[in-house]
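Q: What structure does this chain adopt?
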Amino acid sequence: MHDGPAAYAWGLSPGAIVLMVHSGSLSLGHQANATGRHRVRSVWPAGLPMPGNGILPFLLDERSEPARRRYLDAFGNAANFAVGNRFFLALMMRSALAAACGETSSRLVYDAPHNLFWAGDGRVVHRKGATPAGGFAESGPYGMWGEPVIVPGSMGAPSYVLRGSGHPRALASACHGAGRRVPRGASAKAGEEELDAFLWEFRVVTPLNHRDPGVARRADVMAAWRRDLKQEAPWAYKDIGPVVSSLRGAGVADPVVELRPLLTVKG
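A:
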């Protein structure tokens, strides 16, 4: 516990079980972006070189308006699907806990997208791998404390809930996590001993029951399962402690609570 009053206001207390759902639109957002890029290329003026950085802007002329609207609608639909996806995953997790431990009360702390854009005040802020970190407001449920900032750790590592300060140089944004130390492809080649040690200490629930004798005898299935786990294992990510300290030191967000993992359900 780092900030007792803010934690209490948000319903977070020592010993509480916190469910954190980390999921999005299941590639719908990626498809919306690909469709948007295709439309931009199709109306790009002939003879005009493409931008060297690969970023293609929508032209703000009347001819391009229908394509812009279709893109924004597709992007919005993906965002809405992501919200529903997280909501129903949380309901499923809560139902599983109730079946194992009995009915308990629960409440939503916050929903924080980390790949979306926000329009307002004459500008558009696109947060890719970042999350809103607004500061104090005159009204609203989070006005007294600043906007909740969720910085998830890797499997087996702590996660943090912070409160944003609305730092203008950070565009009222904060990083969404510690970031990868090792690329996915390289992390999948890590040693088997490292993965076994991690699985011995920490509970990871997956759709595949690797303890089933019929599954365990399938060397190809087990190899693919272990490869997927290695890509998200703790050693593939940077330490989250220094990242949170950097957010606090830069005045971007202040820690409220540290969440220590009990298990990960990986789809």
